[in-house]
Amino acid sequence: MKILIAVLILLLIGLQYKLWIGDGSLSEVVQLSKELERQKEKLRSLEDRNKILEAQVLDLQNGLDAIEEKARNDLGMIKQGETFIQLIPRQDSGTDEQLRE
């Protein structure tokens, strides 16, 4: 009878060790669950980004307006017959104050 009790106690200790410390322990499961949530959030953001890029690709494939807008914004291009005007902000060098005096 003492041997049976000793075996059951050792078995209980072994199972408790595996539950709290060993592979597949509760702390490891919680850590893996948190990592899974982080990965799911990252996946959602990448899927949103892919949808935006897909929409841009479809716009560029189907419409000249999108190509023209991209060329104007990103490359600074102008149409044939248009006049390019660039406004340069005035630098304050103190000459205005000297002219006023």
Summarize the helices and strands and which ones pair or pack:
Elements: H1 2-20, H2 26-62, H3 64-75, H4 95-100
Helix pairs in contact: 2-3
Attribute tags:
101 residues, 73% helix, 0% strand
By DSSP (H or I, 4+ residues per run), the number of helices equals: 4
Overall helicity = over 70%
Percentage of β-strand residues: under 5%
Query: Strand-and-helix sequence, N→C?
Result: HHHH
The global form is rod-shaped
Weakly predicted, low-confidence segments? none
* Overall number of strands: 0
Structural class: mainly alpha
Radius of gyration: 35 Å
How many domains in all?
1
Largest sheet: none
Mean pLDDT value: 82
Give the N-to-C terminal Cα separation: 113 Å
